Amino acid sequence: MTIAFTGTRRGMTPAQYERVGFVFRHLAASELSHGGCVGADREAHQIGGAMRIRVFPSNDEQRHWALLEARPTPISIEHVQDPLRRNKIMVDRNDVLVAAPAKMGELLRSGTWMTIRYARKMKRPVYICWPDGTVTEEKR
After folding, report:
1. CATH classification of the domain holding 101
2. Residue 13 burial (CB count, 10 A)
3. Inter-axis angle of helices 83-92 and 111-121, nearest 10
4. pTM higher than 0.90, yes or no?
5. 123 lies in which domain range?
6. By Cβ atoms counted within 10 A, which residue in 40, 87, 90, 92 is the most buried?
């Protein structure tokens, strides 16, 4: 099982952080992919535990790249891509999407929500960890 993760540069709420960790443990995944950005990506990197990490940096967000902690498990850095293309590649290369959006409702102009909509279109299971700590599981 492999996880693609998407979330806001503002970072997760404490409730989201806890629930993302719960979902990661529940899925018992071996690998986590994220965008390497400040905020939620960096936090997911911390939560990732013993998972192998694949970072998909964006060419549009260099000022937002996170300093990621060294890990006992391997980290691989993929080619820098346009952010929307990068998000699609992460969904295509993983089994499930875990998302931590900034707000309690869907937004039209949001990379996180574009990624969720794409995962739905590709019939990937999606776990949305909302700011209040609730989790919506969408199995396709």
Report:
1. 3.40.50.450
2. 18
3. 40
4. no
5. 2-138
6. 40
